[in-house]
Every structure is written in structure tokens, then in C-alpha cells.
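Task: encode each sequence below as C-alpha cells.

Item 1
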Amino acid sequence: DVQLQASGGGLVQPGGSLTLSCVASQSSDDEYSIGWFRQAPGKERKGVSCIGRHYGGTWYSDSVKGRFTISSDNDKNMVFLQMDNLTPDDTGVYYCAARKSPFCAQTALMYDYWGRGTQVTVSS
């Protein structure tokens, strides 16, 4: 199993930046990919970005491309999401999730393990 913990959320003004962190504790040598998902109030959980930690492939949703950057520190089992030029539409609970595959995926159903989310609020 993989246990995940996301952190780094908070309140930020439009145009500001935040960096989210996800720590993954894995109990096997299986390769995992990590995804970040956002869930706004009353809306479904949607993929924001993901990374295949070992081969380095990444994906970004169109809404965050050019503003968000995903990266990983495999020695520490950590994945980061640098979020710049934030807008109110980026508000929501952000979750990190692990998929038992070296290749990341865009949809929540493709992920096997989930951590508790961290709240991001973009407001003036």
C-alpha cells in the first residue's frame, strides 16, 4: 500500500503562488506515478497534473498549463506542485494520488491510493 499526505495549501491573492507537497510512503518497490487533483465546491474531482516519477513524464490540464509545474524528489518520495499566477478558479481542495503504474493518468478512476486533501483558496 501507499500512504499519501498532501500539504502546503492556504489563502493567496490572485496572481500569487503556492507550492503543494505530497509525501508518499510506499511499502513495495513497485513504480508509482503521482497525480494532483482539484475539487471545487459542488464539482467533481478533476485532474490537474501528474508525473511518472521514474521516467519523468508529465501531464498538465489545459487550465493550468504554463502556470503550474510538477516535480519529484524520488530520494524523499516527494512530489511538488508549484502553482504560479493563481486565479479564483484554482480554488478547491487539492489531493495527491498514487497509481500503480510508471505512467501517469488524467482521470481519478485510474488511481489506487489517495491522501487527504489540502485547501487552496485564491481570493482578494
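Item 2
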Amino acid sequence: QVQLVESGGGLERPGGSLSLSCAASGRTSTLYAAAWFRQPPGKEREFVAAITMKGGATYYADSAKGRFTISRDYAKNTVYLQQFSLEPEDTAVYYCAATPGGIATSKASDYAYWGQGTLVTVSS
């Protein structure tokens, strides 16, 4: 079993930056591919970024390319999502997800473990 806890959300102005963290605990918590998804108000959950188990490959939604960076720190069992040039459209609850094995995908159904989410609000 793996537990995921997100942090780092908050209110930021357009053009600003935030850094989200996802701390994992439980058995073999480093041996997972991980991803970030988000759910904007009134909309469905959508893929943001993913990283493979060994961290050698990353994948991004078009909306995140060039503005967001996903990374992981194995020693801290933590996955990060650095957000730059934030836009009001980035307002959403951001969820961390993890799946056993090394393959990172953009499908929410491929991920077995989820955090509770952290709210990011981008507004002037």
C-alpha cells in the first residue's frame, strides 16, 4: 500500500509560480511511476505530467509543456510539480498519482494510488 500527500497549493497571481509536492509513504514507495492530474472547477480530471519510475523520462500535457516541470527525489520519496507562468486556466485541484511499475501514462485509470489533492487558484 502507498499513501500520497500533496502540498504546496495556494493562491497565486497570473504569471506567478508555485511548487507542488507529493510525499509518498508505505512499502516500496520509490518503485512507482508517478503523475500529476488536475480537475478544474466544473470540469473532468485531466492529465498534467508524468514521470517514469527511474525518472529518466517525463511526459506533459500540451497545456503544461514549457511551463510545468515534473521531477522526483528518491531519497525523500517525493514527486514535485514546478509551475511557472501560471494562468487563470490553471486553477484546479491538483492530484498526485502513482502506479506500480515503471511505465508512466496519461490515463487516470492506470494509476492505483491517489492523494487527496491540493487546490491551486490563479487570480489577480
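Check on item 2: The two ends are 40 Å apart (CA to CA). The chain has a mean pLDDT of 93.
End of task.
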